[in-house]
Amino acid sequence: MDLRVNLLSTEWRTRQILLTGENTDVQQIVKKLPVERGDNKLTVHVSGSGTARMIIDLRYNRPATKEEKCPFEISPIEVEETNQVTMDGPIAKERGCDICGRCELDPGEPDNYDFNMFGPSAEESLQIPISFGRRKRQAYNKICIRFQVSSINEKVHGKSIVKVGLQSGVETSSEDLEKLLEDNRNIARYELPSNGKGFVVFYLSEITPNETKFIFRLNDNFKGAKSSRQPAAVEVYDYYNPDKHCTQFYRTDPNTGADIGVDYECDGDGKQCNCLQNTCVQPVEEEILRLVKNRRKPALMLFKYMCDLRKANYAVHVKIKSLTYNLEKNQIIAAAKVLKAIHQEIQKPKVDDMITFFWSINCKLPSLEEGKEYIIIGKDGNNFSTDGREQYRYELSETALVISRNQRNRKLQRVLNNFIKFSEKGCQV
Hints:
- The protein has helices at 66-69, 89-95, 120-125, 174-183, 285-293, 298-306, 410-423, and strands at residues 2-9, 12-20, 43-49, 72-74, 78-81, 142-151, 160-165, 170-172, 187-191, 199-204, 212-220, 232-238, 245-250, 260-266, 273-279, 314-326, 331-343, 354-360, 373-378, 382-386, 389-395, 401-404.
- The protein is mostly beta strands.
- The chain folds into three domains: 2-49, Single Sheet (ubp-family deubiquitinating enzyme fold), CATH 2.20.210; 67-82 and 138-258, Alpha-macroglobulin, receptor-binding domain (Immunoglobulin-like); 285-423, CATH 2.40.50.120.
- It has a seven-stranded mixed sheet with strand order 20-21-18-17-16-19-22, with helices on one face. Strands 4, 5, 6, 8 and 11 form a five-stranded antiparallel sheet that branches.
- Helix 6 packs across helix 7.
- 27% of the residues are buried.
């Protein structure tokens, strides 16, 4: 072995490596290759006799990908009232109801609306809950939490932790947790403080692409102002590699979302940041279908919701034309074409007009797709400065409802068609 290796590059000192029979067992390392100098080219000249192998190992710093930071999927966290009527007795057994009173069997779908059902008599016959579109709580403070955890990209993770934080004054019971272990063998065990408050930790044998489902009841005995409480968090992480973790926030308070977006607004040098918290849009399709099952006339409820100025003052049927990301402001921006102005607000959008929506990039919902159609109900937008010009935008958060027009569920689409028919007569003051 007698090799002479010269490494050359513009604006970089030539490196020479001599390989002989005396040093072939020792790895020769050249650090700091000229990756960002000159024309970014490295020339290798080799002379002599023998055989050698050269390996170039390039490493660079980059932002971690979403999968690297959060390799797990946490479904939207549903917080809803328990249904005492269907939790016990023959009804629960007959209809396959769970511990929170949600039943699988559909008792039927009454959808015969009287489209002349307006005015005071209609108001008296059908009171629209203040929390429609938001999970609510019964007077006795018994609520239900449910969500699913899985891995992304078909990967399998071994022993993992799911830690469910509880808001102040909220506690759970070991009875429900024991049933959860009984129904799901993937959950090996759980731990919680002796008083049942603060948090509950679940130990999972593994997390796979198949969902591990969580459902249990909570008691909310908080005596202060509900709005003063900080949201709680569901954390999922690898037991042996806790840096691989995901977090999703939720609330048990009425009229708040199950998904909380947390953004940070920092000063110029990034040394001081303020936490900006907003309530994300909740999934509403399942709630509408539950109302259908319970014969609650969801089309009329959607209409009343749209006409409640505390929650909304416009409704549009749109088609999403483009989605962009503003990483500086941590926002997703959707440009949409108006297919039908169901109910107009200040801007009075017309058919074929282009309007703009935005929401926090940390929110899982809404999950809008280009080329898809949606009915959106919400509050007035505002003028925002974008690239030196003013643009009117609608924020999709808080009380906004986003309902897909692309789902093939006939019941859901029938409800939306009836909602549009109701809206043709306008909101009555």
